[in-house]
């Protein structure tokens, strides 16, 4: 869990100047076979430094699906408070 998520759960109200979402790539191994999975990270601009505020890994094996979702979150300027719920809603839709 990131420090930002911990602060949010403890009721500390801090916010970055801006937020952006980026694709994450993870390599998994199962029975000797490597797989790439794609997730999303939520980045916040804290006084000029981009800090990972939260991340959801293994959203999809299809990179283009995660790129589309990341672009949507950036266009809508999704609040980090709703990030995990939005990812789960999109994955379960």
**What is the average per-residue confidence, as pLDDT, rounded to a whole number?**
88
Count structural domains. Answer: 1
The fraction of residues in strands falls at 35-45%
Uncertain ranges? none
Helix content: 25-40%
Oligomer state of the chains in this structure? single chain
SSE arrangement, N to C = HEEEHH
What gross morphology would you assign? globular
| Count of alpha/pi helices | 3
Q: What is the end-to-end distance?
A: 25 Å
Based on secondary structure, the structural category is: alpha+beta
Order of neighbouring strands in the sheet with most strands: 1-2-3
Quickly list its features.
93 residues, alpha+beta, 3-stranded antiparallel β-sheet, 3 helices, 33% helix, globular
Description:
The two termini are 25 Å apart. This protein has 3 helices and 3 strands. It is globular. Helix content is 33%, strand content 41%. By secondary structure, it is α+β, with helices and mostly antiparallel strands.
Summarize the structure.
33% of the residues lie in helices and 41% in strands.
Q: Layout of helices and strands, plus pairs?
A:
Blueprint: H1 3-9, E1 19-30, E2 33-46, E3 49-60, H2 63-76, H3 83-92
Antiparallel strand pairs: 1-2, 2-3
